[in-house]
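Backbones bend. Shown next:

***
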Amino acid sequence: MISFIGTYDCKADTKGRIMIPVALKNQMVPVLNEGFVIKRSVFQPCLELYPMAEWNQLMQQMHKKNRFRKKNNDFIRRFTAGVKLVEIDATGRLLIPKNLMAVAGIEKEVVLSSAINIVEIWDKDSYEHVLEETAADFADLAEEVMGDDGDEVS
């Protein structure tokens, strides 16, 4: 299991190539040869870069879904829409498919943000907007997500 650390500002060229910063690329060394999957995010206007082992683990969960339930089929179809296999080349560049660049609104300024076992790929303005938008509610969110309910007295 891999955990990425850090947030990195990058630039995308006109072909959709992003140079992965050395600090992030060094964290990816154990999984570089396995390749990656890139997809649109479910909840945000960004892309998600999955190391192949993480993607395969997620797909194992998907395989358990009953495909004779319409909602499961609809979810799987939407979840995997636009999914692409990608690699980081020998010079450290990641080529993002043009259709996915458009989905995330990425033009030139890019933020690569570690999200534990994946890397989110954002248009810089969108990333900053989402951070600002959620800043006021973050303390409440942190308490709800990470707070220990065992200390409360009913």
In short: The two ends are 38 Å apart (CA to CA).
